[in-house]
Amino acid sequence: MSIYDKYEVIIGLEVHVQLLTASKLFAPDSAAFGAKPNENTSFITLGHPGTLPCLNEKAVEYAVKMGLALNCPIRAYNYFDRKNYFYPDLPKGYQISQDKKPICGAGFLEIEVGEETKKIRIHHIHMEEDAGKSLHDQSEKYSMIDLNRAGVPLLEIVTEPDMRSAEEASIFLNSIRQLIQYLEVSDGNMEEGSLRCDCNISVRLKGTEPFNNRAEIKNMNSVRFVRKAVEYEFKRQIDLLESGGEMKQETRGFDANRGVTLPQREKEMAHDYRYFPEPDLAPLHLSKAYLEEIRQAMPALPHELRQKFTKEYALSAYDAGILTETKEMAAYFETVVAHCPHAKMVANFMINTVKAYLNDQNISIQEAHIPPQKLAKLIDLVVNDKVNRQAAQKKLFPQFAKDPQQDPEKLAQTLGLVMEKDDNFVLEIIEKVLNQHPDKVKAYKSGKKNLFGMFMGQIMRASGGKIDPKAGKKLLEEKLKE
Amino acid sequence: MKKYTKLTEVQADLKANLLTCQALVKAYLSNIEAKKSLNAFLEVYEEEALEKARLLDEKIQKGENLGRLGGLIIGIKDVLCHKDHKVGAASNMLEGFESLFSATVIEKLLKEDAIIIGRLNCDEFAMGSTNEYSSKGPVLNAYDETKVSGGSSGGSAVAVQADLCLAALGSDTGGSVRQPASFCDVVGFKPTYGRISRHGLIAYASSFDQIGILAHSVEDTALILEVIAGGDNFDSTTSCVDVPAFTEKLQKDEKPIYKFAYFKEALENEGLDSEIRSKIEERLKGLALAGHEVEAVDFPIMEYMVPAYYVMTCAEASSNLSRYDGIHYAYRHQEAKDLQNVYTQTRTNGFGKEVKRRIMLGTFVLSAGFYDAYYTKAQKVRRLVSDETQKLLEKYDFIVSPTTPTTAIGLGELINQDPVTMYLADIYTVQANLVGMPAMSLPLFQHSNGMPFGLQLLANKFEEEKLLRVGLELMK
Fold this sequence. Notes:
The complex is a heterodimer of chains A (482) and B (476).
Chain A: E1 7-18, H1 57-69, E2 77-78, E3 81-84, E4 94-97, E5 107-113, E6 116-129, E7 133-135, E8 144-146, E9 153-159, H2 166-183, E10 195-205, E11 215-220, H3 223-242, E12 250-255, E13 260-263, E14 276-277, E15 284-285, H4 288-296, H5 302-312, H6 317-323, H7 327-339, H8 343-361, H9 365-368, H10 372-383, H11 389-402, H12 408-414, H13 423-436, H14 438-445, H15 452-463, H16 469-481
Parallel strand pairs in A: 11-12
Antiparallel strand pairs in A: 1-9, 1-10, 2-15, 3-4, 3-14, 5-6, 6-9, 7-8, 10-11, 12-13
Helix pairs in contact in A: 2-3, 5-6, 6-8, 7-10, 8-11, 10-11, 13-15, 13-16, 15-16
Chain B: H1 7-15, H2 21-34, E1 41-44, H3 46-61, E2 73-77, H4 104-111, E3 115-120, E4 140-141, E5 144-148, H5 154-161, E6 167-172, H6 178-184, E7 187-190, E8 210-215, H7 218-228, H8 246-251, E9 259-263, H9 264-268, H10 274-289, E10 293-297, H11 302-320, H12 339-350, H13 353-365, H14 371-395, E11 398-402, H15 419-424, H16 430-435, E12 439-446, E13 452-458, H17 464-475
Parallel strand pairs in B: 2-3, 2-6, 9-10, 9-11
Antiparallel strand pairs in B: 1-3, 4-5, 6-8, 7-8, 7-12, 11-13, 12-13
Helix pairs in contact in B: 2-3, 5-6, 7-17, 11-13, 11-14
């Protein structure tokens, strides 16, 4: 047994979700990504003398949605605090955040780890404004400041230290990403920084209670990095402890190129943020009616849809999982099923054929512009034995996807894929194939029964997929008995 | 030109063609020039004011009506942002800084044809009670140039006092409008917190700051308030309570019987000048004789008001002034070598002594380990004072007191002393800011030392109309 097996890793996350509001949290400037540096910076974002924050109500709505989705109580009375520290990308010298009374209290998220469901507790969720960006690599002489991001609304989701592996942490993050996409509160695009996280990692001997000091790995913008950072820290901390060292509480950064974590130059020296209630903003009082309105407008969440898909449509948990990966895919599936009530068939077709096509093209289901009614018609052809499944997947669908406005049945006819129901047509082909292989027929008849598959294959190929395999099999069996 | 003390007089003369806006502006400009030694103005908008006057005169010639503030020559405390104009809070920290936008009050003044004649000196970032903490030097009291103007809106008070403009805007965080008004013999009015948008007001302590008005008359105060008050999307702490048409309402001749309360502790205060005390007591008797009810009440928490006020305002100030760090705009110390150095050098050299004192005090009371002992406790005092005041004002119409414990002190008299002595002089004015209620100082008294002093009245939230009405009555 290696020494590493004696330890377990303890992980808590602080996930920063950049909200998809048109404007910033406290200013009318655009919150969009990708503008030229310092383009979205009014005098409010710049923190000029005499400016005041003005709350973007959309951000509050999104925070409430997120809280409801994570089973958190919503604080009807909550307020903002100021977090005071000096940094060049923080124009006011303080960040408006929530400390004492964050909008969402303690909740949880259930994640699927293998066959098991695990509950990850949420400590709280709060709203805050993002800081700007300091760019240290643009010039030899100067650091550059881009304040476009300053003031962009963030939700910070803080978990309890409930995760016990890199796997769990990445499942949790992916589940959060899926949720925020379902709720449409953020695009969850990690590359653009819409979803970032700080990762608190410590290790302890299995079976022991107290937590050791932890390392906080700051500002990671990829699930893969989180996974690597956890794996790296796990080994590093154990090596440290095993060699008699002491683990100190520290902030580290993840170097993606080298796959290691490194101690970080502290952004703020002494961490006394001197939080106090933000006097420029009135406290929020969220009415029952307001909260109820948001609750009513909540979309079905991934776990609810998974449950529905397994129960109502009798899909496997695996299939339900794939079809609910995105809200659009789930909705699309349900529309197709509404027109072609063979849920299992639809699920198979979507997972094996449509998804493969989307992956291949690197597009989303919306971008494919396939009318669900048309796809339903196409799948109907299979259901009604008009086109065989293989042909539908390999020939009909790829042609159809090129111009999804066409009628699938007509297309099947044009492509000659409509199955022949006429026994004579089938028999003709069977005879033709058997005649080509008299020796094999002889061998079959003398006991080599496993040649049957070879005959079927030849027949299907010769028919161009136009034979219903069931009917073909029956006729072939009869013919070989002669 | 004759001395005007009311806008209605100006407007009547304009209408009768006895006066033009240009002549009016020129007259004020020459007064400003003549009384430069008072140091009330930091900048005079000579050309701009004359140009605006010319446009208004054209309007009059064409027979068009001017806005409600047509003919009002007004000065602005150097804490109000005015697009494309310098604004500096009388601090070296903002040397050369020009605002990118105008305060809501500035927009509203201009929309009603007021002419802004310049920006006025004050204590640095509105912190001070004598105007001696301005980086541009003290403002002198026009009654006696060896005396202070009061502060922090000292320039605003003296500008009105010395006839350098008809009215002025100031800001009042703990008495900064009412106290200099008392020292300078003018009306000083601080409305309810949330009545006037703070958008464009350079912050000292956000939950206390309120823009105030200094004028010769209650009538002008009422009209200016009516114009500049009201909800504002830029300031979420403004109230959407309707702004009454004060001027129109005050014209109704009502003579209500009022109930005045005064605090025993206020008049028994050791620091209170005995002559001020006796004159106030006399006045209270007069009010009773005139048929009003006047009652002494106990207010034992009075002694906690100044400490709570300073703890909270310094806390907010320490954060509000963090933005002046030398990174983004205005002053940066030129010899700073690295980031830490930019911060320390800039802030050490950019801020004056009193501002630094308050930043340090505020930083201390918000620090881990001290927060509950100071900030939380001060919050509790604030709540208590608020509840008690509210209770009293359900029974009484006004709480009446002296505005200041003394008349204007001599220049240099307090500035080198224990700052707490100066802070304690705010004893009568901080209550209105702690509780967010409107209060007014009326220039009613003359001390035998030759200096004026005021009477302060405090009313319940959003009862400006009542306050203005009693002001009119008392000024008669």
